[in-house]
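Hi Y.,

Following your request, here is the sequence exactly as I used it, all 236 residues.
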Amino acid sequence: MRKQVLNTLIICAGVLGLATTAQADTTTTTTKNYSLTANADVTSNYVFRGETQTDDSPAIQGGIDFNHNSGFYAGAWGSNVKFPNAGGSTLEYDLYAGFKFPVNDQVNMDVGYITYNYMDSTVNDNVGANEVFVGAAWKGLTGYYYHGSAKNSYNDYQYFDVRYAMGLPNDFKLTLHYGHKVNDNYRNNDDASVRIGKNFYGYDTSLTLTTISHDGGPNNGSKSRLFITVTKYFNL
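Below is the corresponding structure, written out as tokens. Let me know if you'd prefer a different format.
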């Protein structure tokens, strides 16, 4: 009898051990197929495609991003803005979604949609827009094509974006950018920028020199700006 009880206990212990091992294996091999991250930053001047969005004043910004292993992603981003000639000060919020996929071992594609919205209806009517885009990345070189439509008049425009990023000594990073905007109904413009960045104690810090050149219109000519941005990323 004692032998049967002992054998039973040994068998039970063995089964529990196998179950525990199987559960541990399941726990260690199960991983999330998505990531959720957030970002927050402070900048001395919110500049987008060479144009200040805050009348050359500072901005506080932040966003959240969802990325799935399939390549699908979506997110939201916001900032304070100020347009003296388009309705004044308000908040901007952008919503976007897209899909990234590899073409081969070195080239990756990106297609998606983004909408630029503003809390103040007057600013939204004057500045708001919707865009579809397609882009490609090869090593440190990326190129994007955007086709947009302004909300106020549904005037179409196109924007071409080319960037090259490279590492520098002491973990600094250099990013060169050139952009060209084609407007259907009025001026075109070109913008370029040079950005140097580095991570300091978990904060991405960058210094950017940007310039924009307008081809006609009320802002005909060139304008350069120098601004600094500090960004913090969070895993949720």
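Residues 125 and 152 are 5 Å apart (CA to CA).

Thanks again,
Q.
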